[in-house]
Batch of 3 targets.
Target 1
Amino acid sequence: MAVGPIVKQILQTYPGKIRLVIKNYPYKYRDFSKIAAEASLAARDQGKYWEMHDMLISHSPKLDRTSLIAYAGELGLEVKKFTESIDSGRHMQEIEGDLKLAESIDLYNTPTFYINGLQIVGERPMNFFKKIIDEQLNQSGK
Amino acid sequence: MLKQLLACIFVLLLFGNALAEEKKTEIPIGDSPSLGPADAPITIIEFIDFQ
């Protein structure tokens, strides 16, 4: 499951201090996890990764193929190109790469966060993140 | 002798705990989608499943 609001809150609390990086960990027993990851990367190809990322989070778990194509249309993407991309699994290699990376660091749950390399598993309240981020900011002296 | 041994174990335990708390995992960013300045003091890597 995605934790959009907390991440958004973190970015707003620390403007200019955070670099957010997304890795895909589509859980293999959920029907639409992989195609949703494909959709996010297909949108990136058209310069709208974060728009799609937010769209997927707000509409989850309604992430079947038809819905994804509708979201692409809503975001003004070139729908034909988008559809070809998700149907052909164009980004499968990248997604598999993320999965392999996750396995190599013994990660089996989402969401999992690494804040400057410190692991946080599962959903946590803002204060929990804040404490770690503040400590890291103090250590870096910024 | 026993005292010294116990002290030694104690120190090792403390040290071990400190290491565990600060355990950092290095994760290559590669071409993954990212937001914010590359030289930001904080990097958050999120492993996500949209469903």
Target 2
Amino acid sequence: MEPQKQYVLRTVEERGVRLIRLWFPDVLGQLKSFAISPAELETAFDEGMHFDGSAIDGFSRIQESDVLARPDPNTFELLPWGERDETSARMFCDIENLDGTPFEGDPRQVLKRNLRKARERGFTFYVAPEMEFFYFAEGSGTASPRPLDTGSYFDLTTADVASDLRKRTIHTLEAMGIPVEYSFHEDSPSQHEIDLRYTDALTMADNVMTFRLVVREIAMERGFYATFMPKPLPHVQGSGMHTHMSLFEGDTNAFYDPADEYRLSKIAKGFIAGLLQHAPELTAITNQLVNSYKRLIIGTEAPAHVSWARNNRSALLRVPITKKGKESSVRVEYRAPDPACNPYLAFSVMLAAGMKGIEAGYELPSETNVNVFELTAAERAAEGLHELPASLAEALDSMEGSELMAEALGEHIFEWFLRNKREEWADYRAQVTPFELERYLPTW
Amino acid sequence: MEPLLVHPDPPVPELAQALDLAGYPWKAVADELGASRLEPEGGWGGAVLVVAEEAEAAWALARALRKRDVPVEPLLLLVAGTHLGDLQLRDELFDDFCLHPFHPRELEARLRHLLWRAGGRSAPDVVAYGPLEMNLETYQATIDGRPVDLTYMEYELLKFLAQHPGRVFTRETLLSRVWGYEYYGGARTVDVHIRRLRAKLGEEHAGLITTVRSVGYRFGTSRWG
């Protein structure tokens, strides 16, 4: 037996683990889980665990609905919460068809496939997301959310509940091997940001799933509610998931070129150009909720146009200025994604767009140094600035016509996602919102 | 088993004979230098030092063996009656002793017991450094007695570092020694795992692993100073 599996079996025995939770993401990036006992662990490793895929969104097909969950022993972690005598652990799973081939509806397999493609070209893909979220007093979904504080950007709010929650969260994350780079109070009341340290994209996607669970668990322990909804409050900044990315060739940062004026290599420029070129097509994946598009509006810090810059926070894509001698930290920051995305798919499509730019040798458009939000629509058009999709419907239209997205996601997920999201949009369109009632009922 | 270190060199003939009869492999060394030069690949299996005519040299060697990063254990002394007083205030330098000249049966019994105790309790099953303890048999690590939950690769990396305290390893060395094959992802993988390890060790103990600028990483400090 592989030493990794041996290690897991032994740890389960030594630490008295009672339950092993097998985790996997569905197509929308919700965490799914089922538990097995230690006695079943060896079978799970050897044969995989059968389950009915049709019970779960996106994993449903009319015929052969049975699939196998195969735990990845490298992702074994003890869960640092729960009852003392109910020690449990988790492992992420790959989902396979009964014949052992990767299941097309499994986002983890999609990301693995895209990473493999990059690897064939000699690249490792590293990512570091900045996770933003809100704490609220409750999360019923009917009442309007009540913030826990009125703090603002970088505020040090003393002894308040939210900073205590954040501290405990970071502690738990670190104990689970998810190192944190920074954390601070964000712009909006009760909004917080925790930046995760870069790691390879697959581990990071697993980390984002774990992160969202940990943040929620810790809030819930104290009777509060944490949300990654992109725009829970009107009139204040929403929550983003700015994603820093770089490609490495072995130990060398493939984005770095000391001779270039921007210190960007040809590879970096192709990657950026690819992301910009395909940004509208991949937005449905990085911003998958109706609500996502209420964040991507002019006048907030979220991007609404396709542009890049070194030091311009209104740009969609930023190349952070790095310290001299820090060539390994040369990277690009893509600012559209929000934390309600499916990280496996989001990392997949961003990588695919960047790789496409490299392979096809896209030209890097010129940097946008003006504040995009201060330009008029005509000026923006003159600058050649395209808009990001303004709604989920527009984003889906863009995505539907994209060969690149179909290839990056695979036909199965591509089709399922479009169908599912078209339904969501139809449901939304059938609503009459408070805005309409307030505005139109009295006057028309 | 690994050979026992025997001092002085050439050895006391009765000792050589007793060890041969009892079936313990051994090598005689003259001093500390010889102890490291002749050291078997897996380290010394233990040591038997005679404190008689060359008492000064024997004590110096005992001290050197104990001061190592991984001390040589068990250490049995054969002490001449006139040197019994030497044992005072030197308790940390030996595990047991026999009066010299010794009885071969007594030597064998004491050695067997010492080796049993050493094998059951420590090396090579436990790697300990400061607050960190790693049980290599059960794959468990504790810090200040509290369990640290590691993934397999984190565990392997920490084990390797903790087995060589004070040594600076380059990322490439760690990659080849710990991952053991052309691991895809290169040396950045090492950085990522070091960060995860530091995070898990907790703020208080994150300093156990230090970054040596433009070289690599070091675990703890060498007891050689």
Target 3
Amino acid sequence: MGRAKTIARRTFLVGSVAVAGGVAFGVWRMRTPYDNPLMADLPEGAAALTPYVRITGDAITLITPRADVGQGAVSVQAMLIAEELDVDPAQVATEFGPPDRAYWNTALSDEAVPFRSTDQGWLAESARDVMDAPMKFLGMQITGGSTTVPDGYEKLRRAGAVARETLKAAAARLHGQPVDRLGTEGSAVILPDGTRLRYESLAAEAARTEPVTDVVLRDPSTWRLVGQPVQRVDIVAKSTGRQAYGIDEEQPGMLHAAIRLNPAQGAALRGLDASEAKAMRGVRKIVEVPGGVGVIADNTWRAMQAAQAIKCDWAPAPYPAGMEGHWQALAESFTPERQDSRLRDEGDVEAALDGAADIDVEYRAPYLAHAPLEPLNTTVRYSPERTDIWTGTQVPRFVQGNAAAITGQDADDVHVHVRVAGGSFGHRLEDAVVRHATHLAMAVPGQPVKLTYSREEDMGHEFPRQIAMARGRGRVSGGRVVAYDLGIAMPSIIASQMGRQAIPTPGPDLQIVAGAWDQPFAIPEYRVTGYRAPALAPVSSWRSVGASTNGFFHDCLLDELIHAAGADPLEERLRLCSHAPSRAVLEAVGEMSGWGGALNAGQGRGIGFCLSFGVPCAQVVEVRETGDGLRVARVWVAADVGRIVDPVNFEAQMQGGVVWGLGHAMHGALTYADGAVEQQNFDTFRSMRLRECPEIVVRGLETAGKIRGIGEPPVPPAAPALANAIFAATGQRLREMPFDREVAFVG
Amino acid sequence: MRLTVNGTEHTLDDLEPEMPLLWALRDVLGVHGPKYGCGIAECGACTVHIDGQAVRSCQVPVGDVWGDVTTIEGLGTPGAPHPVQAAWIEAQVAQCGYCQSGQIMQAASLLAEVPEPSDAEIDDAMSGNLCRCGTYPRIRAAVKAAARAMREGT
């Protein structure tokens, strides 16, 4: 039954909708398809073949609804469609498509149920199925959770196949040829005599053709694009300064804006004196927004200068003013009243550890900024009839709805144009910048306004990565780890984030324990407990979310116990590991690094492992003492994503994830004083620089079954691997990030 | 004020001389390749050349510009990329790409001065350019490939 259920979940319903001047094909999994969003602007004679393909008389467009924040989403989505459609992704247009419920993310539900990702039994799969319903209802058109590839892997190829077969049927009818004698290649149907019929020339006929929905996807052995090293569609533009980002938006008559927000994020503006700012050159308007004030001017620099000149009276922070208060709130959350989940509870941990713990330690992880290099920005043109928004966002439907609530318009009258983003790491899951820009634009109806946050305003209002604390105990016996007890306290990321979208989040927050409760180890006495701390500073999803802190806690505690047992860090992890793909990645990094070989004096190696977003990822980090500090010299990293769709991007994401995880573990922290973030720019909020970057050797495995994304899984194992390596080199256990609090690093 | 950008001379009489070159380029001249990332010379996304030398355009008042300005758009084009850009394309360095205009301008300046940089010289020259995506391994490889290509005149 479990198997049948699994297959049913992954079967898509294919349908079509006839409309004036064209036809749209939909690849749906839901029972009642939403209206196809591409119908609205369909020109005469055009055929919208699926929600992912649009062909008109003069253009082929692939619609790639997941945002590109640098992770290569456009390229990989285009590649999946093109594999079946027989077009060259570099030769056709791509666009993000409008916000619409039809683009709900079917893979998100996989992470929202209380089952380990390794559990693909009937109950777990059924729960994921049920969770799909609210995801559809909410129209979760979200880019996140490393879901772009799993979400699109079949849908996008099927869309391409339906489009291709329908174009062939149209050509067959036009030219009186049997369909089975037609081929496709390079955006054209090929007739038996070799005549090439461009897809564009078939658009009108395809619009009159019954869609061919009975398609069989091509066998992977015949793939030309998927799994091959291909050039990213955006690589030339991004290497020649031609890629336009949201911050580069130009609209006729556009004004520029800057903002000052209460340094205590979320608190009110009690009063202001803008007399000096008003008189400054180029300033058009000073506009109060919730929690702050904006300046509209004729260029960005003048707007930023004027914003600085406003004297503001700020209300105090709704959270503790200084870090002692934040840490104290976490320390006081390890109580039965604040227990949020205990999804892992094997054996009798209390009895096993009663007065017999060999290790009893506390770990800490700080707030962190996402700080994508492109500061937050949004361009809005408001008029009473219609509002247009240009912005790089991972949540276009939230943007649309929230802007409509501010303008008082119907959501249909708010048009969101998604732009390429200069990084995100979760930052663009928030849409405060859009709300602020909408308020500003309403002050100058008809005129577009581009709001650009200064770096200081952006970093000072981050919705940072959660602060977290963990307490771990354990016992060893006979050279083995026999008891493991980890409690984790943090504020609820999901409640904070979804609360800003007015979406209730009942039940436990699995992110409080993600990357810890769900690890594939068989320890006789094994318990992981989540404690929901009270809300502190507003927090949001940061690359790898809960696992970004919990991978560090879980794996470091395991490493401490293994050392206490006198066992080998790799051998004991392998002995405890109960999941074949996880064993395989551990074995892979062991082999790649030559684990167990002789090291020079002052060298040390550590292993880190975390299974997150369904992906087991293991790393070996090697550090070296230089006399001036520690050098992070080399990293070997292996992960299993089921199937590698884009090998170039896979390697890039693995390396980038390691750099992200290591750099923040070494240097990164946001701290609060007087309610304000103390690090407001890259001089004080530090991450990895090129000189510190180790050699990073990557291996991808393809044995784990389900296809998974790779944006986040390389992050959680990096920090513990580094901490464990530093211990191996120096004998010093680091239990609080960033590590440069206690050790010096050199580049 | 006169400003020569990518070979085109502009007259900017109506600007405060203290406005950073970055904002004059972006908001006044519509040259968007140089990016705003920090405004304090900590990230390098705004890097341009003045008379061939890499500078942080967020720190140069437009009134103080002492020579011809070249931005990423003027270094090469998609059809005729500069060898550093060609190496960046070949190595597929970019992820989000936002820092890469500055990285490329920095690397081009380095290679103009030091045709065969050592690993340490690459580290020194490139560590002021922040990449949040973590493309550093590919940046290192691309700088070396560009150096080879430029020495061999390809």
